[in-house]
């Protein structure tokens, strides 16, 4: 699920907003030292315990609320994620028109500043800085019917066409989920390869357009002064979390289905680098198109788009598709089918994480019924994103529910595993599971670098927070208050469930101090789910004192005898 819609939609937008090439260096650094280690850690947690994002906290019951906080964050993201899929469905069906509707300045939605795809900006009779491509006006004025006043005048009714597309998306998610993780994994063989074919086709076409080189240079050439801007590093960190899906609990959930001896070390390496390759490929594709649009409109690449992330994905890509001389409808259909299949993979993973948590807590409930209820609620909540104000709400939820909140929960997750449970104990768990010792690289990232960076990012963000914007719109205090309340509510699950665990132990007769200590110790249920593996695990621990430092050699040929079961 780590290669998904975020690579095609979110990465190019975040790179565009943060200086193009200036963003790549922080992003690669974050991937190597934060994203990949977190991904590997979550894979190990889920596979070792064969448990979801809540049950895995048997390793430190005081932090069980982290799992619930991640579920709330995941749910916040998935509600708007599916709304993006609804947009791809809309464009998919629009692509069957005899003339792609966004290639012309249509009546009823275009303005006098609309520029058709085939127009030459040198022939315009008005200031070229006011020009807008027909694909941009089609998206904003016809598809979204966006309200330029933002959230200031309240919410309007959902757009009926997008509401139907949203319903279709949730129905398909429901059908995939009721078939289970194993069956959805079979579909992944197609969804994993198909996007690359489409991206290479688009890159080949985009690179041949006039001005494409300027866009690619903007994407690849660093602006060194921007490396000193903390917001660029923050954006890189946020994109890495979103792209790899770390901190949401979904990686833990999927890893829980693995065989206990499965090589997750290999998986973490392959997936993290494949994810980065996909993001860069999408970046090259989109920036070649942006360079062309800048050439057509007579503006700099950095001034091509004025809207948010959805504008980039649903303006630039459709624009270049309309310029295909051979069967543009066919390629447009392929492209939006690709976006939808990527979205299905990510959305089912995120939704499945929430469903797993509910079913783990209420095992008597029928899973198909839980899935149905979750999808219905998701659809009803998602209707807010298909209103004329929907994209503003998306920006708000993305920042507070999918960015800032995830940093807090990820920091607590790393602290709980490596400071409370213990880095040495965790490395022993990995050695028992994979017969592989953990190198100093992983230990340094887990125990020192990641928690320190996340804590610093948290305090810096709070201290230097700026007004949240969507394009030129600045969010008011009411919207900001809602976002902050969402973050506080999700984080409050951690102290609330710690207090519950403490009271539960105290009522059993433990002393005040002992009750606190016990909430931070692994429960009796912690360990491999298989009874035979669990017994051998306890024998393994008895022969390897966690207080003894490991030698840190990352070598599959461990000097400890291989345990066979």
Automatic annotation (TrEMBL):
UniProt keyword annotation of Metal-binding present: yes
Domain of life assignment: Eukaryota
Family named by the database record: Belongs to the sodium:neurotransmitter symporter (SNF) (TC 2.A.22) family.
Ranges in coiled-coil conformation: none
Membrane-spanning segments: 20-39, 72-94, 160-181, 193-220, 232-255, 276-294, 330-356, 368-387, 399-421, 441-460, 480-503
Phylogenetic classification of the source organism: Eukaryota, Metazoa, Ecdysozoa, Arthropoda, Crustacea
Membrane topology, from the record: Multi-pass membrane protein
Keywords assigned: Amino-acid transport, Disulfide bond, Glycoprotein, Ion transport, Membrane, Metal-binding, Sodium, Sodium transport, Symport, Transmembrane, Transmembrane helix, Transport
Pfam families: SNF (PF00209)
Record-given protein name: Transporter
Disulfide bonds: 105-114
Single GO molecular function: metal ion binding
Keyword Ion transport: yes
């Amino acid at each position: 699920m780590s290669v998904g819609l975020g690579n095609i939609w979110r990465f190019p937008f975040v790179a565009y907003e943060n200086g193009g090439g200036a963003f790549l260096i922080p992003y690669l650094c974050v991937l190597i030292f934060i994203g990949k280690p977190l991904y590997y850690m979550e894979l190990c947690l889920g596979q070792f315990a064969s448990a979801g994002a809540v049950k895995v906290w048997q390793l430190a019951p005081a932090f069980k609320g982290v799992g619930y906080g991640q579920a709330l964050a995941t749910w916040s993201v998935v509600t708007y994620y599916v709304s993006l899929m609804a947009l791809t469905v809309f464009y998919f069906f629009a692509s069957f028109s005899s003339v792609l509707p966004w290639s012309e300045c249509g009546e009823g939605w275009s303005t006098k500043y609309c520029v058709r795809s085939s127009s030459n900006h040198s022939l315009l009779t008005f200031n070229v800085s006011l020009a807008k491509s027909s694909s941009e006006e089609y998206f904003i004025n016809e598809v979204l019917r966006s309200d330029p006043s933002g959230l200031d005048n309240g919410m309007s009714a959902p757009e009926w066409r997008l509401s139907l597309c949203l319903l279709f998306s949730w129905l398909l998610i429901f059908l995939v989920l009721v078939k289970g993780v194993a069956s959805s994994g079979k579909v992944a063989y197609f969804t994993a390869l198909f996007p690359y074919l489409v991206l290479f086709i688009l890159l080949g076409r985009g690179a041949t357009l006039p001005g494409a080189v300027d866009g690619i240079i903007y994407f690849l050439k660093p602006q060194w002064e921007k490396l000193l801007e903390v917001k660029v590093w923050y954006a890189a960190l946020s994109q890495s979390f979103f792209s790899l899906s770390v901190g949401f609990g979904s990686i833990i959930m999927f890893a829980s289905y693995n065989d206990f001896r499965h090589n997750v070390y290999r998986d973490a390496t392959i997936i993290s680098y494949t994810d980065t390759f996909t993001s860069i490929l999408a970046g090259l594709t989109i920036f070649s198109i942006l360079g062309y649009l800048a050439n057509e409109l007579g503006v700099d690449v950095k001034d091509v788009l004025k809207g948010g992330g959805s504008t980039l994905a649903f303006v630039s890509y459709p624009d270049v598709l309309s310029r295909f001389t051979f069967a543009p409808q066919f390629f447009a259909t392929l492209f939006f089918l690709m976006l939808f299949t990527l979205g299905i993979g990510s959305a089912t993973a995120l939704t499945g994480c929430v469903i797993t948590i509910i079913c783990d807590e209420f095992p008597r409930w029928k899973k198909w019924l839980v899935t149905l209820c979750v999808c219905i609620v998701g659809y009803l909540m998602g209707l807010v994103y298909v209103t004329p104000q929907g994209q503003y709400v998306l920006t708000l939820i993305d920042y507070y529910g999918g960015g800032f909140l995830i940093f807090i929960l990820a920091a607590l997750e790393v602290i709980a595993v490596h400071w409370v449970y213990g880095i040495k104990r965790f490395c022993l768990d990995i050695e028992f599971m994979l017969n592989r010792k953990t190198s100093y690289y992983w230990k340094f990232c887990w125990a020192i670098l990641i928690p320190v960076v996340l804590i610093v990012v948290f305090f810096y963000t709070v201290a230097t927070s700026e007004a949240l914007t969507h394009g030129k719109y600045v969010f008011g205090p009411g919207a900001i208050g809602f976002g902050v309340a969402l973050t506080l509510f999700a984080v409050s699950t951690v102290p609330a469930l710690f207090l519950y665990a403490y009271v539960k132990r105290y009522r059993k007769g433990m002393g005040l101090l002992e009750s606190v200590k016990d909430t931070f110790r692994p429960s009796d249920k912690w360990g491999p789910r298989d009874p035979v593996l669990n017994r051998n695990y306890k024998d393994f621990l008895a022969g390897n004192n966690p207080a003894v430092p490991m030698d840190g050699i990352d070598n599959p040929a461990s000097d400890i005898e291989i345990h066979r079961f």
